Amino acid sequence: MRPFVFTQAQNQEQALAAAAANETAKYLGGGTNLIDLMKEDVERPSELIEVAGLGFQEIKSNQNGGYTLGAMLSNADTANHPDIRRHYPLLSMAMLSAATAQIRNMATNGGNLLQRTRCPYFYETSMPCNKREPGSGCGARNGMNALHAIFGWNEQCVAVNPSDMCVALAAIGAKVQVQRVNGTTRTIDFSDFHRLPGDQPEADNTLQPNELITAIELPKPAFSKHYYYLKIRERSSYAFALISVAAGLQIENGTIVRAGLAMGGVAHKPWKLTRAEEFLTGKLPQTKNFEQAAELAMREARPLEDNEYKVEMGKKAIVRALTQAYEKNA
Amino acid sequence: MKNTTPSGTGNPIDRVEGHLKVRGMAKYASEFPVSGKVYAQAINSTIAKGEITAIDTSEAEKQEGVIEIITYKNAEKLKRYDEELPSLLPDVIQPVLQSPKVHYYGEYVGLVVAETFEQAQYAARLVRFEYRTEEPRIHLDRQRSDAYKPEESSDYSRGDVAAGMAEADEKVEVTYHTPIEHHHPMELHAIIASWENGEVKAYASQQMIDNAAITIANTFQIPKEKVRVIAPYVGGGFGSKLHAKQHVILAIMAARKIGRPVQLTVTRQQMFTNTNFRQQNEQKMQLGAKKDGTLTALVHETLSHTSTYEEYQESCGTVSKMLYKVPNNKVSHRLVPLNLQTPFAMRAPGEATGSFALESAIDELAWKLKMDPIEFRIKNDTQTDPSNNKPFSSRLLTECLRIGADKFGWERRKMKPGAQQEGNWLIGYGVSGASRAAPYRETSSKVKLELKGGKVYATIQMDATDIGTGSYTIITQTASEYLDIPVDQVSVELGDSLFPVTPGSGGSWGAASYANGARVACMNAIRELNQKLNTDEDLSIQALLEKNELSSYETTGTAKPSEAFKKHSVYSFGANFAEVWVDKDTGMYRIKRMVNVGACGKILNPKTAFGQIIGGLTMGAGMVIAEQSRIEPKYGNFITRSFADYHVPVNLDLANIDVVFLPEEDKIANEMGVKGIGELGITSVAASIANAIFNATGKRMRDLPITPEKLIMAEPEPDAI
């Protein structure tokens, strides 16, 4: 690992100021991804600013009926919080499917939003990767791409976002609160937080330099009865999703009044299935509607050479997740 | 008078060194507090084939703490291979940093030595290499025309397979693929090396102490007596620590160069590129049988690869020569040299992969015959090894299958795939037969007896290793039994080249060889003490010492295979059963139950033996679930570089496991009736699971691992639906 300066910020202002003073500094939360990447020489910050001790560890209910999750709270404490289990069980289920108990204990909510792709070309510094080294090319585009994107990719980058938590947040429709150096805050819609590679594959999200995530806002609970997070993976734990689907249904008088649907393992960002959500709204929770929603969702899939299977698997996964969500409390 | 002590062999006592391990007091190679030691970090090539054209060490040299940087330019000249493609054996030489040539991605090209581990790691990143790159040969499939026959014994045949196929009523002609797998023991390969007065001392994580000493001595061209290798505890090996690898040579070279002890730990990432692997195999099978299930022909042709600088052949076809009575049999092995490191023995080399092909093909043929796969196997069972006409010393394959079937509830199996369903799950049952040679090798040990406070204390010494298998415990139990003293009066000291020579841990010969080696030393002590008294009275060891007026006594003993052993085929046998639930839509599946029945001679300690089988079953399940190291098609490196992406099974992947040992004492195998067990456990596990997946889905999965992506894209066999 390269030598770096370790700064323990005493408060938020210090953290923001330290970050503003050094453009190659990085905030350190749980470190479960960043430290690994530093060991691999992929991330090379000259300074780590520890933010885990700054507070932002609470889960609060809001006046609008929603909840706010502190950015520095651990994934384990968030997923197991009684209010989250009761009101946002979809989020809890997705978070508990991620990584291992040890990693979930360390990983923070803010850090989870920032975890980087697991593309092997990104991890291996001797191979080309536009995300790691802009302009070096994309090794995976015509290399080994079974684990890569089927939506939203381009010649620059075919990597996928590895998070489970973020798939559920996309389905639920969360917002991200950030703090800026000048003391002001801003709120980013979850669907605008992560980005597609475009001509800047090195940027995973729309955070501005030095901005610090302080909280995640959840809207009023809608899917506490009918929800399911389906994660298809090679082994039962400690494996990233080949495909995952977060499905939430709000059913009134036997009709779907609201659907939240997002996929993981398919794109550079958590992939919200807006057309399928719209299609399902007002429909009956029946297999044929679920199948039609899946067809709609996968219509624009563009598989790469090695990941044709994701199209078939994706359809099956959407239908299964919706069915499980419906039957969960039917 | 003698009493049979309850602590002797056959009892499930706890590991005698267990308390040291759980308290972190058992010292592994990199944990010895050698004073003045410094740290080394090896540097890997970033091309798969070519030559180093320039090296810039200037930036690295400037860093704090850096002591030395070694590349081929300033490395000590070592003994080099004097022939092309020498066989990779456990006592082979291991020259390193001897030329600018690069043979595979990740080959060691340099070493940085620094005061601290962190300094060495950082500086190693700063050494710049320039290369002239050549197109690497890394595709088994594309390079198949280069296949060659490695040795005469690579081919075997009996009878006439064409005639045998012609008289068959049902035939199977299919090809199976198994990927590159890595050993990945928990403990990283590591060494602390020092030179003193022209002698090497190496704390090194090695399975075979004597072979490591030979490799070191021959590579540096010094007498073996001037090499001491110490490995009291080894955190697993699975074959990867059978020989001293290049990092061992690197550390010793560096220690000599700088005149200080050097610690070198191979990183987990380097364990993909520098500590060998199980190679990829393409196994083409042809089987024929008559309507009544009599096998008429069996052909097993294997294509795999070796490196461009050493030769290693895994004999996948071994199992097809001897497991079933088939008059017409042909087995062949071909190798393609590739720009990858040399493959090397990984748990049950040949059997683990060969049994996947054979036992899957047997299941395919049973299905075509519409015959129960257990009955089909039993129909072709034999008590004579058809490959050499020697009788088996003992063979309970039929009993393993029958008892396993009973235990598993095989009668509930439906022959037609997909006939058992629960919700979204398709339920399948699978079975496979297993065999693994039970070798036994010459083993020496020393026993030291001490009479203290009216009790006899015994210490057994040998250069054997305990790689997590339970060697300490079974040797303790053996000495306890043959000296007739309680286990807590026995100490065992292992893993030091100063102790008597054993074959080391590998090839499933450890338990039989070590136990018999200890037995002979103990019996020698009793015999010699009796001779001194000129008595044949049945005296206790304490009485013998007392009557001899001795407070201590020591002697040695050597056990070796008998003439009867050589006249027989000596194998362990087993059967595996698996119940697998396959999701009808998503490609996911769960192994719900596994039953393993083994007939592997006398079980010295049911507890450690159980652990061995559990480990084997887990590794066998790993072959099916996800284990594979894929080669990047352009760059030739492994794209799986950590435990996050090299998937071994997790606890959740394995549900209920039942292990049964059939009572058996094979006195032809050796005096104590012990046979190998460490590798039997992994053998044919993969086939039992793949066969269960067929029984659930009608899909024949002939390409390991069976991942959700493969399963979802596979079509059921036309005759299975």
Automatic annotation (TrEMBL), chain A:
Keywords: FAD, Flavoprotein
PROSITE patterns: FAD_PCMH
Keyword Flavoprotein applies: yes
Domain FAD-binding PCMH-type: 1-223
Keyword set includes Flavoprotein: yes
A single MF term (Gene Ontology): oxidoreductase activity
Signal peptide: none
Cross-referenced PANTHER family: OXIDOREDUCTASE (PTHR42659:SF1), XANTHINE DEHYDROGENASE SUBUNIT C-RELATED (PTHR42659)
Protein name as annotated: FAD-binding molybdopterin dehydrogenase
Native organism taxonomy: Bacteria, Pseudomonadati, Bacteroidota, Saprospiria, Saprospirales
Automatic annotation (TrEMBL), chain B:
Gene Ontology MF: a single term: iron ion binding
A Pfam family that the UniProt record links to this protein: Ald_Xan_dh_C
Keywords, alphabetical: Molybdenum, Oxidoreductase
Domain of life: Bacteria
Ranges where the Aldehyde oxidase/xanthine dehydrogenase a/b hammerhead domain occurs: 23-135
Protein name stated in the entry: Acylaldehyde oxidase
